[in-house]
Structure formats: C-alpha cells, structure tokens
Amino acid sequence: MEVKILQNALKANDSIAIENERKLKERKIFSVNMMSSPGSGKTTILEETIRKLGDTVKIAVIEGDVKTTMDADRLVKFGIPVVQINTETFGSSCHLDANMVSKGLDSIMEEKFDLLFVENVGNLVCPAGYKLGTCRNVVVLSVTEGEDKPPKYPLIFRNSDLLLINKTDLLPYLDFDMKKLEKSVREIKVDMEIFHLSAKSGEGLEQWIDWLKKGIKEARNGS
Ligand code: MG
Ligand code: ZN
C-alpha cells in the first residue's frame, strides 16, 4: 500500500512540474534548480552570479530552506525578486517539490525576469527525486565534502545536467582527488558537464556565466 501512495504522490508532483515548465516556457524564462548538501556554497554562487550578470539579465530566485529567511535576505539586497519558501510550513521539510515551486512562481510571476534560480534545500538525497519543472538541474559539490559523494548519492548526479565543483581555492589544503571524483561522476552520468568553480577567487565563474547565457538564449528562442 505504501509503495502505491508514494507512486501517486510522485505522479501528482510530476503533473505540477509539467505545469511549472509550461508557465516558464511560455514566458521564455531559463530556470535552474540548484541542488547540493548544506554549506556547499549555493547562495554564494548566486550572489556572485547576480554581481556578474545582474546588470544585463533580469534574475529572480525562489529560495528553499527548512526555516529562516537568511539566504533570501542575502539575495534581496541586490534588488531582485526573491521569494523564500520555508518547507516546514508545507509539512515535508527536506526538499522542494513542484507544488512549493508553483506557489513561489505565483508570487513572483508579475515581475519581469529572464533567469530563475530555484535554490533547493541543502540535501543530497530527496531533492533529486522531485521534478520541479525547471529547464536544468545543477548539482554543486564543494571540495571540502570529499570525493566519495557521487557513489554514495548517485541519483542527484544522474539527474543533473551540470556539476559545479565549488571552493576550489581550498584545494591546496585538502587531500581531494579530483581525478577520482570526475571518474566516479562519469560512471554515474557519462556526459556530465563539470565546471571547477571558486565563488571566492572567481575561478570558473566565466564558464558558468557563459553556460547560463547560452541557456537564456535557448529559452528566448523557445528551444
Ligand atoms: Mg543557501
Ligand atoms: Zn525530502
């Protein structure tokens, strides 16, 4: 019985995700679901992205956290539309689902923007199982988390289009095996795009910004 209930819940989630996707496509918005464990640097990446791209591209953010508006407060300073979703008020606190994103969209759709970030709840497990209706899934892994995460949490890597390996400025201080990490990721997803990034030093930011620009262009052209 429980298996059936879960399947129905995921089906309901998928149909809302399709509706989110339709709304975003209709408005030609490029949307990115950012997933990672807590503390990987998602919000810092978004801050740097807004600094670099915010003058030329209109950006909005749906911010997911169990509690607090700390991350949303950091982003609202840039004068962009930001909506905070506290998942505990929806009764399932460890991930965003399509319904929460739909509610978030309702509250910012009056604004005009071309790029939407959905910053998921920090968690490498269940965010991977819930489609949100975004154009792309991005997984962020910071080098301080160790290179053993992909084989331990394969689904989030399998379901992502791009891996951002963040905090590369810390590599000199760590025994982090980059080759081993990339190999294990490609064993899960052969064609995974991988960028090395340091939101702090700025390494790799250009590549990330170019990737976003390409997506924005594609969304604008309706592809
Ligand atoms: Mg955050
Ligand atoms: Zn969850």
Jot down its keywords.
alpha/beta, 7-stranded parallel sheet, 8 helices, 18% strand, globular, binds magnesium ion, binds zinc ion
Detailed description of the structure:
The chain is globular and about 45 Å long. With 223 residues, it is of the alpha/beta class. The chain has a seven-stranded parallel beta sheet with strand order 3-2-4-1-5-6-7, sandwiched between helices. The protein has helices at residues 2-26, 42-53, 70-76, 98-108, 149-152, 154-158, 178-188, 205-220, and strands at 30-36, 59-65, 82-86, 115-119, 136-142, 162-166, 193-196. Helix 1 packs parallel to helix 4 (98-108). The protein contains eight helices and seven strands. The protein binds magnesium ion and zinc ion. Zinc ion binds at residues 94-95, 126.
Strand % is 15-25%
Overall radius of gyration: 17 Å
Bound molecules: magnesium ion, zinc ion
Q: Separation of termini?
A: 40 Å
Number of E-type strands: 7
Structural class: alpha/beta
Unreliable residue stretches: none
**Strand order in the largest sheet:** 3-2-4-1-5-6-7
